[in-house]
Amino acid sequence: MKIWILSLLIILIVVGFVLALASFYIVDQTQQAVVLRFGKIVSVKTEPGIYIKQPFIDKVVRFDKRILLYDIEPEKIIASDKKTLVIDTYVLWRIKDPETFIKSLKSVQLALPRIDDVVYSHVRNIFAKSNFDEIISEKREELLKEVTELSREALKDFGIEVVDVRVKHADLPAENEQAVYNRMRAERYSIAAQIRAEGEKEARKIRAEADKTAKVLIAEAQSTAEQIKGTGEASAVKIYAEIFSKDKDFYEFWRTMEVYRSIEGGILLIGDELDSFKYLKSE
Amino acid sequence: MGKYVWIVLFIAVGIYMLTGVYQVGPSEVALIKTFGKFSSVVQPGIHYHLPYPFQSHVIVDISTVRKVEIGFRSIQRGGRITYQSVSQEAIMITGDNNLVSVEAVVQYRVKDPVAYAFNITEADSIVRFTTESVLREKVAMRNIDDVLTIGRDEIGLETAKMVQKILDSYNCGIKVENVYLQEVVPPDPVVDAFDDVNNARQDKERLINEARKYANDIVPKAQGQAQEILRQAEAYAQEVYLKALGEAERFNRILKEYTKAPDITRKRMLLDALQSILEKNKDKVIFIGDADSLNVLNISELLKEMGK
Q: Which of A55, A170, A223, B51 supports an S-S bond with B19, CB 3.0-4.6 Å?
């Protein structure tokens, strides 16, 4: 009897618990929910909290409320200057309106290809109007803003808010990379050649400058030396002139004697004109 | 029998209630959700909240600096860290259409745990993609030489700033601490060409230094030589002057004596000179007398006689 009551009680508790679980649903802070009754939307909850639903009849479909990241596969595009680029984009998006979202796209799984289509076609359109350099550098931000705007507008109707579209990579296709490398190599080798030539130039300049300085130094010294020698010689000439003019005749004689004394070697011929040799002759 | 059922029931309820116990680590905070709705932030320690389905918690690490690597991955293998390059991520186009390999590390922290936990998914990927995207833009604004040299720090700073701005626009509660550029080098296929430029710079320096060495050698030598020439000239001038002075004095003195007895002195001097000549040319004197006779004299004898 007692066991019978107890069993009933336990069954009641379990049934009550299951019923409670089926009648309430919790929407997490990170989620939003759409309540479906036989496939028809009966309510949409975007705020977190606990809500009541018809047990076993209402189906709760939850969607993330947070920003989602969708990394789109890289694809080739052709810029306005006919250069090919591999553009790798990603989209940050969130489900803004779960009702519209579930009506038009059903699930995130099915939404992604649609986002891909929309974003990619806009990337292609906008980027194809710009040239390679613009896509690569400053203007990219502007182009992306445009792509983001257009994508946002296009995906609004699906209950999706495009937060941002960005280009992760904008690379050259592999076949162009090799060409760039070849060009870079050529450029560097030419820079290297120029640097070496400049070194040569500098070096020659320094050497020539040094040679010139050295030559000028010596020439200047030689010039000054000549002047100094001249001054000395002039002084000497003056002294000689002054002293020898005292007796020109004797000077001549004395000087001649000096010359005689300095004669060395050779065969001496003595003519009889020489008055001085009369002593020799008379023998 | 009934008693046991109550005990079992009590234990079951007890265990259920105990699932509300949670621990928050020192670098973490816990975000408490009541019926799924965020209600409070809980600091480190051991805490209790009502069990499922009433309350739940999310733990967010707010102090630890997280790291995302771009262009490479560090692989920890048995206490040793090895780096592996991911060239697909690292190769970037520069403003002058060159390619450069850039490796970077982004460090970030959670500054707003609520926003971090409830506003975004895949935080790591968002930080990685945003940084990659901004980094590439910044690299593309400069030419390759700037990227390799002076632009490095600037690129890191600008990227960090820009990434922060973009992340803030997502309201994702992330603070970018730093973007550090790691290895910024020319891509492998062109490394040798870049090295050649560096070698060329060395060669240039070497050539210039050699020239300077030459200049440093030749100029002082020339200065020395110039001094030598000047001193020699001065010496010569002095020599000539002093010789003149001496000779003049000598002449002066001789003249003084000469004037006392001109004739005799003259004769004596002539003979002295003759003697000197003859002594030096003992065997080689040809005396030319009258045109028709050629007399060869024996000087030795002659000198003997003269000496008498």
A: B51
pLDDT band with cut points at 50, 70 and 90 for residue A85: confident
Tell me, what's the pLDDT at B77?
Answer: 81
Write the ipTM: 0.72
Nearest to B64 by CA among B102, B108, B34, B16: B108
Closest CA to A79 of A142, A143, A126: A126
Across chain B, mean pLDDT equals 86
Rounded to whole angstroms, the Cα distance separating A60 from A105 reads 16
A-contacting residues of B 176-215, CB under 8 Å? Answer: 186-187, 189-190, 192-194, 196-197, 199-201, 203-208, 210-212, 214-215
Write out pLDDT tens, residues B33-62.
Answer: 998 899 899 999 999 988 877 888 999 999
Closest CA to B135 of B176, B169, B168: B176
Cα A237–chain centre separation: 79
How far apart CA A135 and CA A86 sit, in angstroms, is 11
- Shortest CA distance to A116 belongs to which of A144, A74, A62? A74
User: DSSP secondary structure string, A97-131?
Assistant: -HHHHHHHT-SHHHHHHHHHHHHHHHHHHHHHTS-
Out of B117, B190, B243, closest to residue A185 by CB: B190
Nearest-Cα distance to chain B for A145, in Å, is 12
A41: alpha, beta or left? (left if phi > 0; alpha if psi -120 to 50)? beta
Amino acid at B273: A
State the sign of the Cα–Cα–Cα–Cα dihedral B125, B128, B133, B136.
Answer: negative
pLDDT at A199: 94
| A224-248 mean pLDDT | 89
Q: Which residues of B touch A263 (CB under 8 A)?
A: 277, 280-281
**The two structure tokens encoding residue B249:** 């004095």
A279 has a pLDDT exceeding 80: no
Q: Which helix (H) or strand (E) holds A59?
A: strand A58-64
Nearest CA distance, A181 vs chain B (angstrom): 6
- Residue B268 contacts A, CB cutoff 8 Å: no
State yes or no: pLDDT of A189 exceeds 80.
yes
Q: Is the pLDDT of residue A84 over 90?
A: no
pLDDT of residue B288: 58
Contact status, residue A84 vs residue A77, Cβ threshold 8 Å: yes
Predicted pLDDT of residue A282: 44
CA distances from B10 to A3, B6, B292 (A): 18, 6, 175
Q: Do A225 and B238 touch (CB under 8 A)?
A: no
Burial A97-133 (b: 16+ CB within 10 A, else e): bbebbbebbeebeebbeebbebbbebbbebbeebebb
Chain A residues in contact with B16 by the CB 8 A cut-off are none
Token pair, residue A136, equals 């690569």
Q: Look up the pTM and report it.
A: 0.71
A283: confidence class by pLDDT, cuts 50, 70, 90: very low
